[in-house]
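To the wet lab folks,

You asked to see what we're planning to order before we commit. Fair enough. Below is the target structure as tokens, and below that is the sequence we designed to fit it. If anything looks off to you, flag it before the synthesis order goes out.
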């Protein structure tokens, strides 16, 4: 791993996490991967611009204590509007952050949604990431979450810096949603945890 973060992460077994809104199907594979099929109409969003509250997305969660980081690796090979997968950090229904790749307006978008009562959304197109393994990492240190992502073994990109009080209990893990269709299946390649990033910038 490069100078954005720690050198060693340990694998988290899929059975370690607890499902928030269990999916239609979750199938562990012999090589340590997990196939997850999302239910139609699932999403995480609160109010802003769209006027609705959705809190029915699928997330497999475990504790994210201070001074730790979580990583999720998945294949971004979906092609329908608002298909999405990545990593969710959750305090409760009104305080959470999701980050990953969402298919929107004809192209994969790397982004993050932070919610504190109402949601906001930052996004940038990454058409070159289509069909490739993507890793997202959220590092928790002091009063902040640092979000990074990359495709394959490319350099890490800084995606978001967001506040999170150090005394708040939070959970984190892989998530996916299928807002507009019933047959989205995401192939998760791994889920790991380790120490928080040593620095905000290289």
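Sequence we intend to order:
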């Amino acid at each position: 791993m490069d100078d954005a973060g720690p050198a060693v992460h340990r694998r988290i077994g899929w059975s370690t996490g607890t499902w928030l809104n269990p999916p239609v199907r979750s199938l562990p594979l012999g090589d340590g991967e997990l196939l997850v099929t999302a239910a139609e109409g699932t999403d995480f969003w609160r109010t802003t611009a769209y006027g609705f509250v959705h809190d029915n997305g699928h997330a497999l969660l475990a504790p994210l204590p201070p001074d730790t980081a979580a990583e999720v690796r998945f294949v971004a090979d979906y092609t329908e509007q608002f298909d999405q997968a990545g990593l969710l950090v959750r305090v409760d229904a009104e305080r959470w952050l999701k980050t990953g790749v969402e298919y929107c307006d004809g192209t994969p978008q790397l982004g993050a949604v932070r919610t504190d009562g109402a949601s906001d959304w930052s996004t940038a197109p990454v058409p070159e990431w289509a069909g490739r393994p993507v890793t997202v990492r959220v590092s928790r240190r002091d009063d902040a979450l640092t979000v990074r992502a990359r495709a394959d073994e490319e350099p890490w990109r800084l995606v978001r810096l967001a506040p999170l009080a150090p005394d708040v209990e939070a959970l984190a893990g892989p998530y996916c949603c299928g807002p507009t269709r019933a047959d989205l299946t995401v192939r998760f390649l791994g889920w790991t945890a380790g120490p928080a990033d040593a620095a905000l910038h290289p």
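Structural context that might help your review: The domain at 34-186 is CATH 2.60.120.200 (Jelly Rolls). The longest strand covers residues 185-195.

Thanks,
Computational group
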